[in-house]
What we know:
Layout: E1 11-13, H1 24-39, E2 42-46, H2 52-66, H3 70-73, E3 95-101, H4 106-116, H5 122-149, H6 156-161, E4 163-172, E5 182-187, E6 193-198, E7 204-207, E8 213-215, E9 222-227, H7 229-234, E10 244-247, E11 256-265, H8 289-297, H9 299-303, H10 307-312
Parallel strand pairs: 1-2
Antiparallel strand pairs: 2-9, 3-4, 4-11, 5-10, 6-9, 6-11, 7-8, 7-10
The structure holds 2-oxoglutaric acid and fe (ii) ion.
Amino acid sequence: MGSLIIPKLLIVDFTNDNLTPDTTIWSSTCNDIRVALENHGCFIALYNGFSTKLQESVFQAADELFDLPTETKIKNIVSKPYHGYVGQIPIVPLHEGLGIDYATEDEGAQSFTNLMWPNGNQSFCETTVMFSRAVKKLENMVITMMFESYGVGKYSESHIASTTYLLRYLKYRAPEIHETTMAFPSHTDKSFLTILHQNQVSGLEIRSRNEEWISVEYPPSSFMVMAGDACKAWSNDRVLSPYHKVTMDKRGKETRCTIALFSFLSKKVEVPDELVDDEHPLMFKAFDHVDLLNFYLTEVGRKSQNILQDFCGVQI
Ligand SMILES: O=C(O)CCC(=O)C(=O)O
Ligand SMILES: [Fe+2]
């Protein structure tokens, strides 16, 4: 049996005050981020863009939300696929999730809050917006650095201006004896980037390029930054959009909670000309991001083992 080499995931320290544009550390970190996204499709970010109080209150907000009756939670219906309530699924019995589209904007968070708490819940609303905005800042920094490393920094501002954010509160209860430990089946994200923040209960597993599953442990104060299929398409197939899943510990007793921010483009996802050359011929046609989600809703899309190729691959 060959030895199992578990690749170490990159840890980027965004709390370092010296990490500012036009410094050596900035350009080497931009490079590290690009290499990590190409090799593993993810990295861990140490980030202190919000207070310890907000860190606590966002998990309290999650508890309050999941404590609502199911009849209320199922009202979280969003027209875009995979944006609303998910739960009560017999083959995924441990998982429940709710989504807030445009969570970085007051109106987005407010309309969700009004739906869940018709008599109001201002602290939930404020916590959601503050947390989403703090994570958006991290997302924007990663975009800026990745674009810079690919030599297309001039496009990052317009990309960020055309990005919308979906915040999802996700819960996984501990399995009972004889119950499945599979808490969220293997998939790739359809987002551009996904940023995950978990409580003290791990469970995330990521599939590496050589198809080994890596269990990811990251401290509750840090973030997992992951590329989605739209990022893979934009990069002309350089970045990995990793398969990942959540598995709960068979003997675990605690509930796992993740708060995830997904970024989506409101303009076409297209490969910059600079990322196409003889060595890297164009792999994907430009597409509307929401159409990728709609394709994933179809049977062909759901069963596809190579969704980008099947959805927007350039036929050779
Ligand atoms: O809970 C997690 O860590 C992962 C969630 C996830 O993969 C998703 O919502 O797409
Ligand atoms: Fe995911």
